[in-house]
Amino acid sequence: MNSNSGHSSAVLTDASEARGKNYSTSSLDNYADLLQVKKKELNPTLYSFIDEWMGIPHRMGGATKRGVDCSGFVNMLYLKVYKENLPRSSRDMDGAIKSKRNSQLKEGDLVFFSFGGRNVDHVGVYLHNNKFVHVSTKKGVIISDLKDSWYAKYFTNAGTPKS
Q1: Which helix (H) or strand (E) holds 92?
Q2: Known catalytic residues?
Q3: CB of 157 within 8 A of CB of 99?
Q4: Are 160 and 100 in contact (CB under 8 A)?
Q5: Which run of H or of E encompasses 68?
Q6: Rounded to the nearest 5 degrees, what angle is found at the Cα of 78, between the Cα atoms of 62 and 19?
Q7: Residue pair 107/126 in contact by the 8 Å Cβ criterion
Q8: Closest CA to 111 of 60, 77, 62
Q9: In b/e form, how buried is each residue of 127-144, taking b as 16+ CB within 10 angstroms?
Q10: pLDDT tens readout for residues 126-135
Q11: Which of 65, 83, 97, 138 has the most CB within a 10 Å radius?
């Protein structure tokens, strides 16, 4: 644990295919292994940002390292990594994208879920090979897999923010 920020310096994932793997350091090599891509395919600024926030706990309405919610995390990521402003809520973000099929998704696209009914109530950022980074209510900032049954069941939409 980094005592300054209270977050983990490891790459945290609950993706089923990563079970048994130890990503005890946060390096581009570990991200490349987890995401099954070559290191040169990764945007270093994006993964540096993810490192800074990995393991930060969920807090509804939060936008600090003491706690952050899904849309707050995605907003800060987009501002820092892509220099773009997004709407504050996941539902509004969903209304501001050009939708894509999963097979068309690229690093930095947004993925949306509806855990509480019909409306979008969760957002994450697509990475590679069905993996995405988001804020889990139980585990904080973490990398998960769209194909894992829990996320596949509640997945609703994905796409690129309209500029």
Answers
A1: helix 90-94
A2: 70, 122, 134
A3: yes
A4: yes
A5: strand 67-68
A6: 75
A7: yes
A8: 77
A9: bbebbbbbbbeeebbbbb
A10: 999 999 999 9
A11: 97
pTM of the model: 0.91
For residue 57, give Cα distances in angstroms to 65, 104, 105. Answer: 8, 31, 27
Report which of 53, 162, 60 is spatially closest to residue 116, judged by C-alpha positions: 60
Tokens at residue 107, please? Answer: 């690093």
N-terminal to C-terminal alpha carbon distance within the chain = 38
Question: pLDDT tens for residues 19-53?
Answer: 777 777 668 999 999 999 999 999 999 999 999 99
Q: How far apart are CA 26 and CA 93, in angstroms?
A: 29
DSSP state for residue 31 in the 8-state scheme: H
Cβ neighbours for 27, distance < 8 A, ≥ 6 positions apart: none
**Torsion sign across C-alpha atoms 50, 142, 115, 104:** positive
